[in-house]
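Model it.
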Amino acid sequence: MAAPLTPAEARRARRWEQAQQEHERKLDAITFDEVMAMVTRAWNSRPLDPEGWRCVAATARMVERSRDRVLGIEPEPITTPEDTLREAGISSKRQARYQRRMSSLLAGRA
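Modeled.
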């Protein structure tokens, strides 16, 4: 059976583990050269694939997610209009009435 770690050894072990995790996160991140290769490929494939720009957009999203993962940024939660109204204390019955009224106004049946 191994002897228990001293407090100093435990701190060193924690720091080592955190450094390893940080290193692994950085390895998961896509490099700038890889991004440029993907964008160049998409640009050059335009005559063959007119919708090749979807690849560029997907690459941009991938780079953003990768950067956020490296920096440890959590994505913002999506807030719906219903959530905002609920937080303001407006009941779902009142929300439905308002939506029906707006729909009829927009349809020209006011």
